């Protein structure tokens, strides 16, 4: 079977609420990870600035905006969780890093095995 057929079959195994829940969970986790990565990048830039005022300002700005992004991500989890419960969605149960890795592995494994057919 071709790749688009396997994607359609995989999508039919989930109901729409589960797809929304998983999509929101993945987006929140990716946003959090990117914030942490940019905090490290800003820290490294600060260390390597060599005392140059412009580079220090740029590094501090990167760190500042990354921390703001991390705070927004945490607030998003709280807001999405609260609004989700009011609408019948339980996004918090899908924010499990092991489950996300397993889902990605399953998707990668199914596309690899289908391409060998």
List the helices and strands and how they pair.
Elements: H1 3-12, H2 16-47, H3 53-87, H4 97-116
Estimate what percentage of residues fall within beta strands. Answer: under 5%
Low-pLDDT stretches: none
Average of pLDDT: 76
What is the overall shape?
elongated
Separation, N- and C-terminal Cα atoms:
7 Å
Number of structural domains: 1
Record field, number of beta strands: 0
What order do the helices and strands follow?
HHHH
Task: Outline the biggest β-sheet.
Answer: none
State the share of residues found in helices, binned by percent.
over 70%
What's the alpha carbon Rg, rounded to whole Å? 20 Å
Tally the helices. 4
What structural class do you assign from the helix and strand content? mainly alpha
Could you walk me through the main structural features you see in this protein, from its secondary elements to its overall organization?
This protein has one domain (18-99). 83% of the residues lie in helices and 0% in strands. The chain contains four helices and no strands. It has helices at residues 3-12, 16-47, 53-87, 97-116. The N and C termini lie close together (7 Å).
Core attributes:
mainly alpha, 83% helix
Concise overview:
The chain has 117 residues and is mostly helical. It has helices spanning 3-12, 16-47, 53-87, 97-116.
